[in-house]
Amino acid sequence: MEIVLVTSLIIISTLVTILILITKIARKGNKNLPPGSYGWPIVGETLSLLRAGWNGTPEKFIRERVEKHGDVFKTGLLGDSIVVFSGVAGNKFLFGNEGKTVALWWPKSVNKLFGNCLITSSGEEAKWMRKMLHSFLSPDAFSRLYISIMDLVTRKHIESHWQGNQEVKVYNTIKLYTFELACRLFMSLEDPNHIKKLASHFNIFLKGIIQIPLNVPGTRFYSAMRAANAIRKDLHAITKQRRVDLELKTASPSQDLLSHLLVSSDEHGRFLTEAEIVNNILTLLFAGHDTSSVSITLVMKTLAEKPQVYQKVYDEHMDIAAAKGHEELLQWDDIQKMKYTWNVVSEVMRLTPPVIGAFREALVDFTYAGYTIPKGWKLYWSTVSTTKDEKYFPDPTEFDATRFEGAGPTPYSYVPFGGGPRMCLGKEFARMEILVFLHNVVKRFKWDLLIPDEKIEYDPMPTPVEGLPISLHPHNV
């Protein structure tokens, strides 16, 4: 037993030493790289980035290194050498050179969990998938198809989970709501037990996204991969049944995203494979509920903390409601009147972005800010590198929704949905989802925070550690 243990330790030590030597040799060949530190072998500075997020200050990781090295610096994250681009100029360069100098890239953990889908594809494949999804997720589609359904689902959710309760844990309840809505719109899935089962898998899945991809028992990534497999198995079964229903004409080709993807082809007659459909549905279920859940939760926290902001939001929504019949559902024109509310949401996302950044890969050797970026190197841009910079946002830690009036912030300084050709395809879906929910909840309630100083931590998205418990106070209507 001891011989086996000693032998194992020698092998592990040798492998680590070889990895360190290979890393050092590879890095010595590039003399004009940006300044910075790679951190520890293999893990790099990943733990420092995660620690900043757990403390609720992800911008600290960026800010400390920008102060030391400048707006462009190198680091090591998730097993890769990374160059971080900060500031407006960095955002503009990366967004403007998509498909030319740089291309979308994700760590191995993301690629393994999501499979071949819109967010992991690049080049012509990405353009094709985006085209296949766009007709379902475009503003025109929302104006014609989804606002009223969103409003109806939201009303039912509030009746079931909010009305009659004195206290609510906002984050968990909102996550269930946004997941219910995504399941309804994307797959016409309404069975609450089925939805809860899927949601429980997604909660595990989320925790493994930004992790070192060690697929061994006991790691978050291992649990996330098992959850992803369970989700895919379920989605494959739903997809196969929908094919049958479409053939029998008991389902409509236009009833939801799943039907749309099954019956749609491009101009050459090419269809998405079943695996691609499942992967894209999985991706949109994730994107369609997690980031919106965070945003709604943090807006509700802000409205409880700032009564004067709540009152202005309330007045805006009561004016909209007063112009409609009692049971009349929201329409596209109503959403366009929620200008102040969206400014409030935007300011909340500025102060606490739901997503802190994304990756690119250098397609060629190129020079930026006087430094050489080698082909194949990984690049990172961050939403938090500009949002609390006083050059772009005076008094950056203060809440001020008027920042988004008129022309709004400096271009490329506020990028919660990314930018360029890879801007988030679900941006309009998120806007509708957030505004429809806020309209319904503000009309019915005021609320107080039960834990006023509750900590927010990023893991990987910003969430209140206790779920934001509130006490509800129904309006006397």
TrEMBL record:
Its main location: membrane. GO terms for biological process: sterol metabolic process. PROSITE patterns: CYTOCHROME_P450. It is found in: Membrane. The keyword Cytoplasm does not apply. It is a single-pass membrane protein. It holds the Pfam family p450. One of its GO terms (cellular component) is membrane. GO terms for molecular function: heme binding; iron ion binding; monooxygenase activity; oxidoreductase activity, acting on paired donors, with incorporation or reduction of molecular oxygen. Heme binds at residue 424. Keywords: Heme, Iron, Membrane, Metal-binding, Monooxygenase, Oxidoreductase, Transmembrane, Transmembrane helix. The keyword Heme applies. The chain crosses the membrane at residues 6-26. Its cofactor is heme. PANTHER family: BETA-AMYRIN 28-OXIDASE-LIKE, CYTOCHROME P450 26. Belongs to the cytochrome P450 family. This is Cytochrome P450. It comes from Apium graveolens.
